Every structure is written in structure tokens, then in C-alpha cells.
């Protein structure tokens, strides 16, 4: 059962086609749209500002979303937020990606189809143009994102769309085996071509 908490009369909203892992925590003014995926131990704390995951967005393991009063923190359609990232009072544009352990601060805007690299620190108020690659702490735009990189990112996001469905249909709590099976199978996926840096 997902950990969902009402505060001050505001209760989270989760679309029936979205998957939220049972260990995630949703508090207050949180809106999770269609086909979203929210990973294990994610924290969406809508006790000040509104938090919105638009259709097809994913927020992976141990991510944190929070914001200031009267401000929205938004991940737009097909936004992709990597493990351990922190989003605070910001906007992540359509089909953009925020890498693992990156931090995006208040009133920052990550433009559509941009990629924020792992461990980057996007300072408050930074406006990242669409299709930009952003790296560093503090973050800076280093170049335009290529079509190949956008295709790679989009493939990864589609895998999370599929993961939401797979999780709703087949994930269940079980006891661990004590030994590996002799014929243990592997998960098989179509691997995307990783873009050159």
C-alpha cells in the first residue's frame, strides 16, 4: 500500500494508470498523472507548494520533490528524473532529463529536451534553454543536445512507461530465495545505442 498522507485537507491524487512504489511517500498537494512511474523511497512532500508529475514522467528511487508556498514544482510530459535527484520549486520541461543525484533549485527551469548531467547543481532561477546539455556544480550549459542523445533519452523514458505497467501487473512482495536457482533467467530488453560523448 502506497504511503499517502492528507494535510490541511489536501490529499494526493494518483492517476489509475500511474505506478507508485509502496515505499514512496506522497504528502498533501501532489498530483501524479497518467502513465507515471514513482520509484522506491521517493518523497513527494506537497506540504507547502504543489507537486505535479505530468503524463509519462518518472521520478526514480530516493528522489525528493518539495517546494515553497504558492509555487509549483513540475515535471512535464515524459520528464525523466534519475535516482537520488532533488527537485525544489523548479520546472523540468517536456522530455527533459535530470541525471542521478542532480539538484535543481527554486524557480529554475530546465528547458524541453535538455539533459542535466549526474550530480549537477542547477542554481535557483537558472533558465536552461531547450535542448541543452548542462553539467557541473554550479551547472552550466556546455553544448546543444544531439538528436541521437534525445532518441537515447526517449528510449529510456519509454522503458519507464513499460516499467509502470510491468510493476502494476507483476510486482508483489515475496520472501527471498535462500539460494539461486540453477537455471535462473535474466531480464531481456532491447538495448538502445548509447550516444557518444
From TrEMBL:
UniProt organism field: Massilia forsythiae
Which top-rank group of organisms is this from? Bacteria
InterPro entries named among the record's database cross-references? PaaY (IPR011974), Transf_Hexapept/Carb_Anhydrase (IPR050484), Trimer_LpxA-like_sf (IPR011004)
Q: What is this protein called?
A: Phenylacetic acid degradation protein PaaY
Q: Which gene is the coding source of this polypeptide chain?
A: paaY
| Lineage of source species | Bacteria, Pseudomonadati, Pseudomonadota, Betaproteobacteria, Burkholderiales
Amino acid at each position: 500500500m502506497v504511503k499517502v498522507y492528507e494535510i490541511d485537507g489536501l490529499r494526493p491524487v494518483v492517476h489509475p494508470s500511474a505506478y507508485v512504489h509502496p515505499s514512496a511517500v506522497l504528502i498533501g498537494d501532489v498530483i501524479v498523472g497518467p502513465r507515471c512511474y514513482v520509484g522506491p523511497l521517493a518523497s513527494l512532500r506537497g506540504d507547502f507548494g504543489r507537486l505535479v508529475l505530468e503524463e509519462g514522467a518518472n521520478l526514480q528511487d530516493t528522489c525528493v520533490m518539495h517546494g515553497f508556498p504558492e509555487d509549483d514544482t513540475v515535471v512535464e510530459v515524459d520528464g525523466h528524473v534519475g535516482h537520488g535527484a532533488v527537485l525544489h520549486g523548479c520546472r523540468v520541461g517536456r522530455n527533459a532529463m535530470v541525471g542521478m543525484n542532480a539538484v535543481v533549485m527554486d524557480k529554475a527551469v530546465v528547458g524541453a529536451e535538455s539533459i542535466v548531467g549526474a550530480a549537477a547543481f542547477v542554481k535557483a532561477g537558472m533558465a536552461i534553454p531547450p535542448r541543452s546539455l548542462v553539467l557541473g556544480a554550479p551547472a552550466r550549459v556546455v553544448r546543444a543536445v544531439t538528436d541521437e542523445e534525445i532518441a537515447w533519452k526517449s528510449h529510456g523514458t519509454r522503458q519507464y512507461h513499460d516499467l509502470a505497467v510491468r510493476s502494476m501487473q507483476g510486482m508483489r512482495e515475496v520472501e527471498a530465495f535462500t539460494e539461486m536457482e540453477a537455471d535462473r533467467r535474466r531480464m531481456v530488453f532491447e538495448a538502445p545505442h548509447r550516444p557518444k560523448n
